[in-house]
Every structure is written in C-alpha cells, then in structure tokens.
Amino acid sequence: MNTKITLLLAASFIAIVAVFGVALILVHNGIVDADKRVEEAKAQIGAVCQRRLDLMPNLIETVKAYAAHEKSVLTSVTEARTHAQNTLDRLARDGYTPETMKALETSQAQVTSSIRGIFALVENYPDLKASSNFLALQDQFEGTENRISVARQRFNSAVRIYNSKIEKFPGVLIAPIFGYQEAEYFEAKEDAYEPVQAKF
User: Fold this and answer.
1) Which of 67, 107, 145, 176 has the fewest C-beta atoms lying within 10 Å of its C-beta?
2) Alpha carbon 9 to its chain's center
3) What is the reported pTM?
4) What is residue 85's predicted lDDT score, i.e. its pLDDT?
5) How many CB atoms lie within 10 A of CB 135?
C-alpha cells in the first residue's frame, strides 16, 4: 500500500512539474513573440522614415529649379535630412534602444519642420505648384506621412501587447527571469508627426 501511495505521489509531482514546465514554455514563447513584434514594428518605423528621407533630395531639386534664391530654406531641409539619415544609420548600427528611439523622434521632428518650410515656400511659386514633378512628389510625401502614422500606431500597439504580457500573471513572474523589461511607446513631440500639410 505504501508503495502505491509513493508511486501516486511521485506521479502527481511529475505531472505538476510537467504542467508547470509546459506553462512556463508557453508563457515565455508568448513573451518572445510579442517582443519580436515590437522589434519588427520598430524596424518598420525606420523603413518609412528612410522612405521620407529618400524622397527629400527629389523635392529639394524640384524646388531649387524654381526657387534658387531661397537658399536658407533649402539648406535647412538638407541639414535636417543629413541629421535624420545619420540617426537612421546609428539605429542600424546600435539597434533600437530607448535612447536611439528618442533620437529618431527628434530627428524626424526636424525633418517634418523643414518639409513644412518647403511647402510654405512653394506658396510663393505658382509655376512650381502646378509642376507635374512637384505634384507627384507631393502625393508621395502624403502617402509616406500616412505610412509613418500607421507604422507608429502599429509599434505602439505591439508595445501595448508586449507590456501586457510581461505585466500580467504569470508573465510578471517569468519575464524578469529572462530579462524582459517594459518597452516604451513611440511618442511624438507635440505635433511633430502630424502629416505635413501640402494642400495647394
């Protein structure tokens, strides 16, 4: 009889350990998946910001042909683009950390401001506003601004899901064991990430 009880207790203990092990694996894998979605969303923000930077030289050249004497505006756009490109290069090199994400936010705010300056400048040049090259660029910028907004929303959604997984039970017990920490949301500076208004 004692042998049967001992075997039953041993089997029960093994079953409990197995259930706990499976639960640990499932929770850990869920956190890993959520973390990977956050990383993917960060990379998408970088990709759409790069698209915007890639469009800027075409915009500058198009405007330059009409407004060559507006050098200060064109220079500020070029400088903002260079700073933002350096930031994206740093992200590619160093990875997406809270510090590099803040640098990305700041550099993209400067880009947004400089693009607004170009579009304000265009108001003084009716021929430029009617140029097919400029109109095509305007459409591409508007599409890119929408992509940036969507990428930012997806990132923040992925961060919310990830943070929920590591803050809810049993993730709150498991996440610290594997070094998972709360992720920060992508927050724009005031109106920095509102779409550039380019209505003519």
Assistant:
1) 176
2) 52
3) 0.70
4) 92
5) 15
